[in-house]
Amino acid sequence: MLAVTADDHRPTGPVAVLANPTAGRGRHRGLLPRLLERLGEGGRPVRLLSADTPDEADTACHAAVADGAAALVAVGGDGTVHRALQAVAGTTVPFGPVPAGTGNDFAVDTGFPADPLAAAGVIAAALRDGRSRPVDLARMTGPDGADRWYGAVLAAGFDAIVNERANRMRWPRGPRRYDLAILVELARLRPRRYTLRLDGQEQRLDAVLVAVGNCASYGGGMRICPDADPHDGLLDVVVGGRFDRRTLMRVKPRIYQGTHVRHPLVRSFRARTVELTAEGITTYADGERALDLPVRITAVPQAVRLLR
After folding, report:
1. Given this model, what pLDDT does residue 118 score?
2. Is it the case that residue 178 has pLDDT exceeding 90?
């Protein structure tokens, strides 16, 4: 993939930084001053955006881009990246993800170092050299025309259902809430009827797992769509069929290596446009609550320029 030079994007403002201090359960909170200093080595002023809620983060990122930011950098996990992507997708403003969360799948899958300081150094070097590299994003659209971009993976099966359950629970707090949500939804596990339209070709199938990937991984390194490539202009769709509880628990660990796709109940597809329909499913994109099904998902080539 060829780099884009400074002639294609002439920065006018500061480098805007969206930082989530709670990402990765706060383990990188004390690193932020050093990260900002490292980003400053790119030769541009650095401005930390003020945002205390996800909605404020959305607003701050859009305002920074509209005000002429030279670049937008997200310090956090996939959720923080997801917020920032809404502002830079489809623009000429370059973007840099600094992986500092529990799940850093988009940053790692697009070639950034897993170490936050090292990733900030890569971004600074790209800023200094006026270099960026385009990668694809996925754009999802609901029946009402609402759009949402994502960089890594859209979950629309068991994992999305577990996330939705965990978000509705008020007890227990912390990661135990997610563990309990898994147990509750395992007890209720049943295949659901999905309708898939892949570049206009319709398929109806019963499934437990459904994922649509621009990149390979979600959930902190689970290679749910192991062959997905964010440079090929295509989406990878992985469907896990009529799993019972025991089979699902046997197959799930294999997702970290991507070998689950060899299971006879797993099917893989590839398409530019995916239309996905099922009853009662709220999707999660980059780990963030997204749109209810039905949705239309489109691969958008070179939708964002990465600072690397």
Report:
1. 98
2. no
- Does the pLDDT at position 140 exceed 90? yes
Q: What is the distance between the alpha carbons of residues 131 and 3, in angstroms, rounded to a whole number?
A: 6
Contact 82, 286 (CB under 8 A): yes
Q: pLDDT by residue (tens digit) across 88-104?
A: 999 999 999 999 998 99
Q: Exposed, middle or buried, 54 (CB in 10 Å: 0-12/13-18/19+)?
A: middle
CA 237 to each of CA 107, 124, 147, 206: distance values in angstroms, whole numbers, following the listed order: 20, 35, 20, 14
Cα–Cα nearest to 101, from 84, 77, 118: 77
Q: How far apart are CA 97 and CA 276, in angstroms?
A: 29
The pLDDT mean for the chain works out to 93
